Amino acid sequence: MRVGAGRLRRRQNLGYAVGAVAGTLALVALLLPVREAWLARGPMNSGHEALTCEVCHRPAPGTLRQQLQANLRHLAGWRRTSADFGREDVTNETCLACHERPDDRHPVYRFLEPRFAKARAALAPQRCESCHREHRGVRITLAETGYCTNCHEDTRLRRDPVDVSHEQLIAADRWVTCLGCHDFHGNHVMQTATLLADARTPARVRAYFDGGASPYGTERRHPARKEPRRD
Ligand code: HEC
Ligand code: HEC
Ligand code: HEC
Ligand code: HEC
Ligand code: HEC
To answer: Which positions ≥6 away from 45 have C-beta within 8 Å?
Structure first.
């Protein structure tokens, strides 16, 4: 059936209008990803199931309109930096607001020193996220073995209390045993074993990394806060 010229034009106009609306909606969706499509990217890690999104993804400063204007000015070259849309980035500070431990034996800030350049390239140990990637449904996202080697190859104890000395363990590449006797942050209240036979098995450590029960017991020096410390 032939379509009259007038009707065709009306249809085309309608087509343009629909296209324009769809285009605007797509642009809005693009510019407002966190407002309109704010879906978790995977299951929360162990212990975080009950947290709200906002404790980690804090609202960025400014209204949405100000953020939009700032980013348009940035695109046009009138502003040097872009602005966070909707939410701030998650940083070490975000985590430390609930997990501050003044006696952490491996505090992240230490690894900014020049002598850790090689370890930084291999592990990025200066960031919580390197070992605890979020939205993975687990507790620790690095392999359970091997990363102590990046910093402890030269570790020697003056009077070694262990039946198989650290020197021997390290020389024999037995890095898989380290977490059998030591936790990483030193936050668990526990006795350090002195017999290699008493070390926790790598399988138990693996299960803990994946979200299972702690092989180091449940007593902590510094329990996690349920609400972030605000300063
Ligand atoms: C314990 C802190 C924490 C909580 C709580 C949290 N997230 Fe995240 N989220 C992160 C981190 C860290 C990243 C960075 C990406 C990664 O680690 O893979 C991230 C990334 C994301 C991303 C990918 C976009 C981006 O900015 O990288 C989305 C989407 C997201 N989270 C949504 C949510 C939603 C929805 C909730 C609530 C159900 C939530 N998150 C709760 C820490 C958290
Ligand atoms: C609002 C406070 C809050 C924030 C922010 C937060 N956490 Fe947690 N986290 C908790 C609580 C509460 C638990 C559960 C602790 C428990 O069971 O003792 C937990 C558990 C954990 C655990 C597992 C501990 C365990 O023994 O089961 C890890 C690892 C962890 N958090 C790392 C992080 C990292 C990395 C970040 C930053 C991306 C972060 N957390 C941000 C409150 C927080
Ligand atoms: C180089 C890897 C690495 C980095 C970086 C790292 N962690 Fe861990 N984290 C681990 C390992 C391994 C464990 C398991 C052993 C243990 O419990 O100490 C762990 C356990 C934890 C636990 C549960 C046990 C506890 O201490 O209460 C929390 C909470 C935690 N990390 C938070 C953090 C936060 C917050 C940061 C950043 C400030 C961070 N981690 C940085 C490797 C890392
Ligand atoms: C990025 C470097 C780095 C990594 C990776 C690392 N350590 Fe350490 N570790 C250090 C530094 C630095 C010290 C402090 C030593 C000092 O004071 O000279 C330390 C100290 C320690 C201590 C003694 C703490 C105390 O209270 O005296 C133990 C135990 C330990 N580390 C075990 C481990 C284990 C187990 C691993 C692997 C799971 C590991 N470390 C991974 C850098 C690292
Ligand atoms: C059988 C248990 C056991 C194993 C396995 C073990 N350690 Fe230890 N480690 C100890 C004990 C006990 C001490 C003495 C201090 C203490 O009580 O924490 C110690 C002390 C340390 C110290 C502190 C050194 C100092 O100057 O005070 C470091 C660092 C360390 N261990 C790293 C490691 C690394 C890396 C591995 C893996 C190659 C490892 N340990 C394996 C039991 C163990």
So the answer is: 132, 134, 135, 136, 137, 138, 139, 211
* Ligand 4 within 6 A of CB of 118: no
Residue nearest to atom 34 of ligand 1 (CA): 40
Cα(105) to centroid(ligand 4), Å: 7
Q: Quote the mean pLDDT of the chain.
A: 86
Q: How many CB atoms lie within 10 A of CB 178?
A: 22
Q: How many CB atoms lie within 10 A of CB 81?
A: 7
The label of the residue with tokens 């936050």 reads 187
pLDDT at residue 191 is higher than 80: yes
Tokens of 53: 């999104």
* Residue ID of nearest Cα to ligand 3 atom 11: 184
Residue nearest to ligand 1 atom 24, measured at CA: 41
Cα–Cα distance, 96 to 133 (Å, whole number): 15
Residue 201 has pLDDT above 60, yes or no: yes
Looking at ligand 4, which atom is closest to the CA of residue 148?
A: 37
Amino acid at the residue 159: R
Q: Which residues contact 176 (CB under 8 A, 6 or more apart)?
A: 144, 145, 146, 202
Of 57, 20, 61, which Cα lies nearest the Cα of 41? 57
Q: How far is ligand 3, taken at its centre, from the CA of residue 77, in Å? A: 41
Distances (CA, A) of 115 to 35, 69, 96, 129, 175: 42, 43, 24, 21, 21
